[in-house]
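Bit of a strange request maybe. I'm writing a small parser for structure token strings and I need a real example to test against, not something I typed by hand. Could someone generate the tokens for this chain?
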Amino acid sequence: MVSYLQVQNLTRSVGDKTLFRDVSFSIGEGQKVGLIAKNGTGKSTLLNILSGADQADEGQVVFHNDVRIGYLEQTPAYPLDLTVIEACFWHGNETTNLIREYETCMASASQDGLQDILDRMEQQKAWDYETRAKTILSQLFITEWDKPLSQLSGGQVKRVALANTLIMEPDLLILDEPTNHLDLQMIEWLENYLSRSNVTLLMVTHDRYFLDRICSVILELDDETIYTYHGNYAYYIEQRAQRLEVVRAEVARATNLYRTELEWMRRMPQARGHKARYREEAFYELEKQAHRRIEEQQVRLQMKSTYIGSKIFEAEYVSKAYGDLVLLKDFYYNFSRYEKLGIVGNNGTGKSTFVKMLLGLVKPDSGRFVVGETVRFGYYSQEGMEFDEQMKVIDAVRKTAEYVDLGGGQKLSAMQFLQHFMFSPQQQQNYIYKLSGGEKRRLYLCTVLMQSPNFLVLDEPTNDLDITSLQILEQYLKDFKGCVIIISHDRYFMDKVVDHLFVFKGDGVVKDFPGNYTQYRNLNPDSSPRRGEREVKSEKLKMSQTTQRYQGEKKRKMTFREKQEFQALGEEIDALEKEKAEIESALSSGTLTTQEIIDKSKRLPVLGDLLDEKSMRWLELSEIEE
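Reply from user aminoacidic:
Good idea to test on real output. This should exercise your parser:
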């Protein structure tokens, strides 16, 4: 396997904080690698160094000759006066630079070097660059090429940036949180695209289903170093637990020996002076090992929520539209006590507007929300994070509350509460401007939970949170004694927390589904991205048959064998989809052996191809009269 990337002894510090020290790893051709780390430990910094946007303090990054790199930043930035299609040419890459070189040459009087440029244009397929751009944008549901970026939502800008990266057809694709701000349909499209592509991939993502289904190698950045796991996310979880058990045992042994050596250091000052310098040096190494910290969130935080009565809220025939865009139409629902509701749907279908109407921030066009008197909302919004950057972390939380009531006469101080959400006492004394984007999101979440609400409304709480933070939040919400509404595109998170869904389908249609997201998808396969592929194939098939009939071919009836095949195909497709769902569930369970993980990971793409093949044949036969 050709090595596309070699990272050798890389070190990077920010101020007095070391993000990583002497890290080394490599990525080979065709590998799909996921990078996992807690917020603030240097994931984005590492990707910026690899892409050339930042520099390391020490070490080097070596790429294979002529490897083309595509980099999707976590928060893409464009001049807002650009149009969608102009944005696809704005970020300089080898192809767009060549197109500009061609245009400059054509505008010159001498046109020196034109033939060389034309040869390179042909070699790099630069002539059809704009066509490729429009094709990818269309697949991402961006079709207004001349629309200014200033008129697009954050999710649409992210899709433009994603298209910009994919158009390049890079050899090595580096993605920083590619699923942030994408709706579920786009996430599943991207998952399908990357799993079928031969591109070499390195990505940071908190979407555990996305990570599990795409990546075959996991890199974990922890304790200033890199650990490599050759398997998917489920395999990583299993092996990481084993690694931490070994580390705990080492720390325990070092701690016991440290006590003995500490006693020796105190009692024998003369020996330290001239007879046992080696032992003194070994003592300080031992001290480092004994004081090594393993930050694992083991304690379940069960907070007492404010009393909530039986009357929660009632949506009485609510309607809302913006011009021709209908978000809700005569919507009625009576919310029950202790419900945990997930809201899903494509961007622009009215999910955030719905919760803003519930909270009284937006007025409905007709109808009303009647909210119970005991309801006390805690609202986490996508755009609600506002802090004084010059404040310390602990002061920002104390501004909300000094203590959290756990019930039974127990209380947690603001400092203790922050430690449950992975803010160490040292970090609590940091100024907010020093925090990473994910750490600020975690702090914002803490300020919402500190208010002791009995009804949590969380709008995209998973964006920018690391996996460890998500696990803590999942457990907190499962134990929460109150009502919850969550808008999220994180499928794994929704499966863990909610007990039913509102599916916003657009045009004011909202479907109430009694189950989690995976159950909804299994019962509604037509909502998958693969549906689009099958519909295109079906349409092509219909057009072909229509043309044949127009040319005078008489439509024939299905033979006896074809009827048998048609019936068998339906049963085979059901069985294959069931097997696929079982494998995906098993891979996410964390209970498989290494060999079982490898076998099931190999079986998944085979199932996908079989499903496509048999579905296509089923469509062909369905067009014949029985």
